[in-house]
Specification:
The chain is mainly alpha-helical. The protein is built from 26 helices and 8 strands. It folds into 2 domains: 364 residues, no CATH class; 258 residues, SGNH hydrolase (Rossmann fold), CATH 3.40.50.
Length: 673
């Protein structure tokens, strides 16, 4: 295939959009759609290359895949080795097994499957804190390369007239799958080949139908190029994480890419002249290396900034800058030399194989190496039973998917007999204690509600009070957030599910008329003091006719290390023996927000007798403002913001007082009747 400079210009446009989006999403919220442009371009190029080789009678599967290996694998392996070294020596040891396993899936071209099963939402915390999240798109392309060439060559040689119809059918089936999965399972639609294949096939179809005559001047082709450019820029600027994606939204960057690629191939002098500028082409040629290296550098820099208490925005731009420098070094020092054919090719392939083996062995070591979260065995094993009260996923999924969870010795006895996906649709998790099975206590909230659910459950069983749990991991709503904010999706697969979640809870509250609704959440991630006050008052108005009392549970302090740090690792690192005093650990910079939110809730409670405020947070501060995270052998925190079972047990008395009063009041009413 003849070299086309404007195609490198399109690569440059796409990679710059991705880099800006990852460094600061607010500057270019839809920059991540640059990956869709790469997909279309890959489908176009692979079809042109294979078709050209078949036309000339020179096509060889062996040569095709060797070229792919030399072009893509050396830089990928270098990036993996660098990431694994950073994981081993710079990042918290508790995260090493997860990152090691992610690297192994990447080597097997299955990073997209790993992301879907283990990281979830592309914009979620787990995906944003993994240095290999970006490998999903490489896996999609590699999986396409494994299937498409075989199909294309077979049809070309034996049923050429069926080639175009078969690709059109494949395009339509994949597009339909994309639209269906985006609505039903968005994370699968985002990561997996069946729902992304249509984007690559769009490029393939373009390669088949584009004019085969020499490039010529065409006003229509020129207009087509500028229209495609405008569509891409609109996608970069206006598609964001609140828009269901890929879905219908992906049609914009895909159609724009088809128009732009077709234009520059037919009429290079139009928009192609701008895309052929030397600096633009240089960026495009290094785009693969830039994509490989920028994201790991960005994530690792952010994690280090959290540990060193440095500004996150500064860390982001430092990470992007460092990633660009590493990418340029790898491009000139690894990618270009290793993709040469001719003399020395066999040795280069041996080096590639050796690098892959080294990356696999290092990944395996990180997965299997002993962990030292509690080096001196000064604490009892961490127990967290909250996952059993998640009404969206099955019991097993929460701790398997939770980042760094493997560092805990988690004991979760199966106190419940039945596990259901999306159990909230049926009224949550209902424990029908006592003679009357109608829930008199209802617990709303996120994983913060789940961390108290065991002690609430035990108390309700002791007092014979029927209780229903509506906890949803991943930021599940405590109040009617989807009703108040039409763009709210929360941890659900779609905004429709989030809205339906509100409708289901309203319906069951109306049926049950519970004596008590308990609200528990990580309030600082959703509210400031003023907005919390407004939302809380709105919620009280909504449930006044259905609930006799609402309890607002304040949030415990959050460790400054954030999602990247395990507190027991921190304690072990700052002490030299089990006899050393516990080091002081302090809350993050949202501590003032949490205190103001608690004060605002108490202010609402003073003027509205429906509300009562419960203050477990006060139990987890020392007089100097540091966090009371452990005492004796008890470790009160499961991670940076969730209490372990031992922590929840410490404040069990607060819930006992709340529920005992409820039990006594109701018993007195029954006796009076």
């Amino acid at each position: 295939m003849k070299y086309s400079a404007p195609l490198d210009g399109i690569r440059a446009l796409s990679i710059v959009a991705v880099l800006v989006n990852h460094a600061n999403g607010g500057l270019l919220p839809g920059g991540f759609t640059g990956v869709d442009v790469f997909f279309v371009l890959s489908g176009y190029l692979i079809t042109r290359i294979i078709g050209g080789d078949l036309d000339s009678g020179q096509f060889s599967f062996r040569e095709f895949y060797l070229r792919r290996v030399q072009r893509l694998i050396p830089n990928l392996i270098a990036m993996l080795l660098a990431v694994l070294a950073a994981v081993a020596f710079l990042l918290p040891k508790g995260t090493s097994a997860t990152h090691g396993m992610h690297a192994m899936w990447t080597l097997l071209n299955g990073a997209n499957i790993f992301n879907w099963r283990k990281l979830g939402d592309y914009w979620g915390v787990r995906a944003e804190s993994s240095p290999l999240t970006h490998a999903w798109s490489l896996a999609v392309e590699e999986q396409f390369y494994l299937v498409y060439p075989l199909l294309f060559v077979l049809l070309w040689r034996w049923r050429r007239r069926l080639l175009l119809p078969v690709l059109i059918i494949g395009f339509l089936v994949s597009l339909a799958g994309n639209l269906y999965l985006t609505k039903k399972i968005p994370s699968a639609a985002f990561y997996l080949l069946p729902s992304r294949g249509w984007e690559l096939l769009a490029g393939s179809l373009l390669a088949l139908v584009i004019r085969k005559n020499a490039p010529h001047r065409s006003n229509f082709a020129a207009a087509m190029g500028w229209m495609g450019m405008a569509m891409l820029l609109c996608g970069f600027g206006f598609i964001d994480e609140t828009v269901p994606f890929p879905g219908y939204s992906a049609l914009l960057p895909v159609a724009g890419s088809v128009l732009l690629i077709g234009s520059v191939e037919i009429f290079p002098q139009g928009v192609g002249r701008m895309l052929s500028a030397r600096p633009v082409v240089a960026i495009g040629k290094a785009s693969y290396s830039l994509y490989l290296w920028h994201w790991p550098a960005l994530v690792i820099t952010r994690i280090m900034a959290v540990q060193l208490e440095l500004p996150m925005k500064t860390a982001a731009w430092a990470g992007i800058t460092g990633g660009i420098l590493l990418a340029l070094i790898a491009y000139h020092g690894i990618e270009i030399p290793m993709r040469k054919r001719g003399e020395g090719r066999r040795n280069r392939l041996i080096w590639i194989a050796a690098g892959a083996v080294a990356a696999w062995l290092l990944s395996s070591w990180l997965v299997l190496r002993p962990l030292e979260a509690d080096r001196y065995s000064r604490f009892d094993p961490i127990v967290f039973s909250g996952n059993q009260y998640d009404t969206r996923w099955s019991s097993a999924d929460y701790l398997k998917e939770k980042k760094s969870a493997h560092i805990y010795d988690v004991v979760s006895p199966p106190i419940l007999d039945v596990w259901m996906r999306n159990r909230w649709r049926e009224g949550g998790l209902i424990r029908r204690y006592g003679s009357d099975g109608r829930p008199r206590v209802v617990v709303f909230g996120s994983s913060h509600a789940m961390m108290y659910s065991r002690v609430i459950d035990e108390l309700c069983q002791e007092l014979q009070i029927p209780v229903a749990f509506f906890g949803v991991v991943g930021g599940g709503p405590s109040m009617f957030e989807a009703t108040a904010d039409p763009s709210y999706k929360g941890p659900f697969e779609s905004r429709a599910d989030a809205k339906f979640f509100d409708e289901v809870r309203r319906r069951f509250l109306g049926e049950w008329k519970p004596d008590l609704v308990i609200l528990i959440d990580r309030w600082d991630s959703k509210y400031q003091a003023d907005s919390l006050g407004v939302s809380l008052q709105d919620f009280l108005r909504d449930v006044r006719k259905d609930a006799r009392r609402v309890a607002f549970v304040t949030q415990v302090p959050v460790h400054i290390g954030g999602n990247y740090v395990n507190l027991r690792e921190v304690v072990s690192a700052r002490t030299s023996s089990a006899a050393d005093p516990l080091p002081l650990l302090f809350p993050d910079n949202k501590d003032t927000v949490r205190r103001l939110i608690a004060e605002r809730a108490e202010r609402v409670a003073r003027v509205d007798s429906l509300l009562r405020v419960i203050r477990p947070d006060l139990e987890f501060y020392h007089a100097d403002g540091s966090i009371r995270y452990a005492e004796g052998r008890k470790f009160y925190y499961m991670d940076e913001d969730h209490l372990s079972d031992a922590g929840a047990e410490r404040v069990k008395g607060l819930f006992a007082e709340l529920l005992t009063g409820l039990s006594g009041a109701s018993r007195g009413l029954r006796e009076a009747k």
